[in-house]
Specification:
With about 60 residues, the protein is of the alpha+beta class. The protein is built from two helices and three strands. A hairpin with a 7-residue loop joins strand 2 and strand 3 (about 35-40). The relative contact order is 0.21.
């Protein structure tokens, strides 16, 4: 049985879109339905995406 760390280590395609209306960036994982987050900077958006991915995996595991 795979652990959370096993799933976190897997490669998931990440889509990053600049939000020109609100500012910042929106990040989603197309292979993880509903796993979407944002951040004011690209760095914070990617960091938030890692947290969102972990929460998504924990919720469906």
């Amino acid at each position: 049985m795979k652990t959370l760390n096993d799933y976190m280590a897997m490669s998931y395609r990440m889509e990053i879109v600049e939000d020109k209306d609100e500012g910042g960036f929106v990040v989603s994982y197309p292979d993880l339905p509903g796993c979407i987050t944002c951040g004011e900077t690209l760095e914070s958006a990617i960091e938030n995406a890692q947290d969102a991915k972990k929460a998504w995996i924990e919720a469906v595991k």
